[in-house]
Amino acid sequence: MTHPTVAAAQDLAPIFAGRAAKWDATRTYCWDNIADLVDARIMGMSIPKSLGGLGASYFDVIQVVEEVAKACTLTARIVVEGNLGGISAVMAYGSPEQKAFCAPIVLAGDKPAICITEPDAGSAATELQTTAQKRGNTYVINGRKHWITGGGVSKLHLVFARVLNEAGHDLGIGGFIVHVDPKAGITPDGFKVTGREKTMGLCGMPEAELRFENLVIDEKWALIPPSGFRHGFADLMNAYNSQRVGAGAIAMGVAAGAYERAKAYLLRREQFGRPLAEFQGLQWMVADMDTQIHAARLMLHDAAQSLGPKGSQFPDMIKAARAKLFASEMAIKVVDDALQMFGARGYGDKEPLERMYRDVRMFTIGGGTAQILRTQIAGSVLGIKTPQTRDGDATAPLAQLHAAE
Ligand SMILES: Cc1cc2nc3c(=O)[nH]c(=O)nc-3n(C[C@H](O)[C@H](O)[C@H](O)COP(=O)(O)OP(=O)(O)OC[C@H]3O[C@@H](n4cnc5c(N)ncnc54)[C@H](O)[C@@H]3O)c2cc1C
Question: Residues with Cβ within 6 A of ligand 1?
Fold first, then answer.
């Protein structure tokens, strides 16, 4: 049975579609849409009922994501990050206090920011240099992150850092929950938003640079996965598999939205005295778009309903990687073809196609590039753990990701 929030998302879609150009042109965050998502109980719908959420499954969430993404890519990203990724890591690994603290913030409309990437640690995420050093009952965080989605608007941050003990010995990688809410006067010393990228698409979403300078947080906000810090990165990346499926669902939803618009246009626009829909050159494009979207949807649904090994609460890593890889590359092609079908209108801003085209381009980069996902899939199907660093350092991304198995 379809979750009731899917129908709510379908009702909201025309409203979101009507506002989407505004966020893009003004590069502003879609607070109005977030209020609607909160009212519809879509924000935090994956949070357990005992903590005020709806206890919805990842499968439920990605069906909502598809409907929202057809209308507004920006808002769909907020649905994903308000249900999957950071918040699902807290719900899986967090202490009762962490869960009880984070749940109401997300339910009230916050999209937690995941802070992994650094200037010298992109695909090679395990090379991150941000440190969290134990000092008494606290951790002192120092470092710099960039391309942090929602930096400057998010209240909750899950900061990935290299954990050092009091003596400075490296214990592994851990996550740290950092709460920031300037409107409520919560601006921790040492937490700074130092820049924002100017992006080609998804312009309403801040992609921020963050700096941590002797940021002191209580030890109770360390998110310690079951295997401790030593394999903490692998556990935290397992949680990220849910967000990866979500990202694929956004891409697929944008493709489906572009496809539906293109189909309607082909039936209404006439050239040579006939509707465009009668030309075989375009019909075959439609058939390919339809087939590709259907295949992506099936892969995403399968991934969302899968579970990783060893009692994992998160989707299977390879199913998630395959589905995101396929959906993100498919969506770029499908949106491009839809734009083509609109001719000059598609290139102009009276139609949303040019915005969708700019928006969808990011999904083969953010959240694991297409190349890194291929490396992951190939490693799994061939059973080969190939270190990506020249010296075969075990901290290479693939080796780390396999440690999750
Ligand atoms: C819109 C957007 C939002 C983002 N949001 C977040 C966020 O919220 N939090 C966060 O932590 N990060 C975020 N990121 C960062 C994202 O995760 C990184 O961009 C991504 O991991 C790639 O890192 P990089 O950009 O440094 O590219 P690099 O790692 O420098 O890679 C450059 C190119 O080389 C390829 N490459 C690298 N290594 C290999 C290899 N071993 N084999 C084959 N090819 C390789 C890559 O695929 C890519 O094509 C976001 C990025 C974007 C664009």
Answer: 113-117, 122-123, 147-149, 207, 362, 365-367, 369, 371-372, 375, 388
Question: pLDDT (tens digit, 9 = 90+) per residue, 96-112?
Answer: 999 999 999 999 999 99
Q: Provide the CATH number for the domain formed by 113-223 in this structure.
A: 2.40.110.10
What is the whole-number distance in angstroms between the Cα of residue 36 and the centre of ligand 1?
Answer: 32
Question: Which atom from ligand 1 is nearest to the alpha carbon of 151?
Answer: 8
The pLDDT of residue 107 is 98
Q: Ligand 1 pocket test: which of 328, 369, 386, 393 has the largest number of ligand atoms within 8 Å of its C-beta?
A: 369
SS3 300: helix
CATH assignment of 232-403?
1.20.140.10
The structure tokens 């189909």 sit at 263
114/110 Cα distance (integer angstroms): 12
Q: What are the boundaries of each domain within the chain?
A: 4-107, 113-223, 232-403
**Alpha carbon of 252 to ligand 1 centroid (Å):** 20
H and E: helices and strands count for the chain: 13, 10
Kindly give the number of the ligand 1 atom that is closest to the alpha carbon of 145. Answer: 11
CA of 115, closest atom in ligand 1:
11
Percent of the chain with pLDDT over 90: 88
pLDDT for 347-396, tens place per residue? 999 999 999 999 999 999 998 999 999 999 999 999 988 888 887 654 44
Distance 365 CA to ligand 1 centre (A): 5
Q: Which residues contact 275 (CB under 8 A, 6 or more apart)?
A: 266, 267, 268, 269
Those residues whose C-beta lies under 8 Å from the C-beta of residue 303, and which sit 6 or more positions away, are: 245, 248, 315, 316, 319, 320, 322, 323
Domain covering 4-107, topology = Butyryl-Coa Dehydrogenase, subunit A; domain 1 (1.10.540)
